[in-house]
Amino acid sequence: xxxxxxxxxxxxxxxxxxxxxxxxxxxxxxxxxxxxxxxxxxxxxxxxxxxxxxxxxxxxxxxxxxxxxxxxxxxxxxxxx
Amino acid sequence: xxxxxxxxxxxxxxxxxxxxxxxxxxxxxxxxxxxxxxxxxxxxxxxxxxxxxxxxxxxxxxxxxxxxxxxxxxxxxxxxxxxxxxxxxxxxxxxxxxxxxxxxxxxxxxxxxxxxxxxxxxxxxxxxxxxxxxxxxxxxxxxxxxxxxxxxxxxxxxxxxxxxxxxxxxxxxxxxxxxxxxxxxxxxxxxxxxxxxxxxxxxxxxxxxxxxxxxxxxxxxxxxxxxxxxxxxxxxxxxxxxxxxxxxxxxxxxxxxxxxxxxxxxxxxxxxxxxxxxxxxxxxxxxxxxxxxxxxxxxxxxxxxxxxxxxxxxxxxxxxxxxxxxxxxxxxxxxxxxxxxxxxxxxxxxxxxxxxxxxxxxxxxxxxxxxxxxxxxxxxxxxxxxxxxxxxxxxxxxxxxxxxxxxxxxxxxxxxxxxxxxxxxxxxxxxxxxxxxxxxxxxxxxxxxxxxxxxx
Lengths: 81, 456
Known about the structure:
The structure holds 2 protein chains of 2 kinds.
Chain A: H1 3-18, H2 38-52, H3 69-80
Helix pairs in contact in A: 1-2
Chain B: H1 5-8, E1 18-20, E2 25-27, H2 28-31, E3 48-52, H3 56-66, E4 72-75, H4 85-91, E5 96-99, E6 112-115, E7 133-139, E8 145-151, H5 152-156, E9 170-173, H6 180-191, E10 195-198, H7 205-214, E11 219-222, H8 224-230, E12 243-246, H9 253-262, E13 267-274, E14 278-283, E15 290-291, E16 302-306, E17 309-313, E18 320-321, E19 334-343, E20 346-352, E21 357-359, E22 362-364, H10 366-374, E23 379-389, E24 393-402, H11 410-427, E25 436-439
Parallel strand pairs in B: 1-10, 3-4, 3-5, 4-7, 5-6, 9-10, 9-11, 11-12, 12-13, 24-25
Antiparallel strand pairs in B: 1-2, 7-8, 8-18, 13-14, 15-20, 16-17, 17-19, 19-20, 21-22, 23-24
């Protein structure tokens, strides 16, 4: 599964669990305007680690803080490349 | 006679200083001439008061009015379920409730109800002179809150006398002032010639930072998780603080570096503090962990490491729990339960002795999560543990051993995972719900027969 597909499905899963209406997951979507809180992002990252075997945000990696959905996807694509 | 908070404010260029939230603002010169309660505060002399307000602003005004007058003030945090009110009222022997909201059902009508708001009506005169007990609530292993006792003296012990005064700081905090971390900042603003802008749980980080920028905030505090979220906002680049303070969670080098990059002119400080141990120390060198020479130094605050965990003795520690349970051990040292490891002349925090998990500054006792999972008929035993996470410091992960009868394929495992997570969501606050559940063949048991807890 591509990182993007896995990420989209994890965003949709947490939104269902939290009863949040997600805006369309466009590249330009500002993550803080997605309706998801810090805890939701934490859960997404933990589940992606189980699914993809990587956590590109772990302390050893020096990644930029993502602002848009595209930033978030790119961090995973770069880490799995 | 003990100096109250109200008394400590007098005569300090009060007209230029203020308290502000999303809708209200008051100058300290007006504040010391009035009182936000619908009763004359002298009537509450010697009372044990539960302070339960919707807004931080209302709590702030009531706290200034009541310190020195009430015998005891219990600060009920926003976000704590109202279901804990009866047990907290009983444990604190509260006889009065001060609130800006209708009382939830289940609270005894024997209590004297006092309404407070965001405006000043009554006069406030200096009376009383009591050393009011301030009761802060923290989470306990059983899910019931623990009541920890401070006074203005223990809370203010860590506040520097004069360094900031000349610059008239405008403080803000991502914390709520009804928790130790936020209350520290509120007192610091009041006692060092400053002002305070309160955050609001309803605001997005960008909205809060825009408001803080407009109000001229110069000094700001929060957990690493607060800052990781704030730095995701484009507004973070407009904000220009002089002083950024981190506490409440393990601080890693990543967040320190991100803050230095975002605010190159600011002093970035991380502090070790807890409700029980008070403010232990502050680290100014921009590096995670703390220098080994902090340990064993003589001074007002003494630190030592025993059995791998950090212990603190200082006049800033809480006085006691309201229950009989003790937290200060041998010779006045408080065992923080935080495990530290020495590497190259520096100590680093590596986890908790009791397995407690810190999710974005909120404490999760693993036993509480395990108790919920263990209720499911197909679960033999469950272990809740921490996994490091960039967004909240840690998240809860559960390892679950199923009963022998529970042969499972992948589809069944997915269904069971959803069932267990739904149970947790019904019974627990959302930060306590495991991010993921793993089915494992067995769990390690210690020689004393307990689940082996990995700390991290």
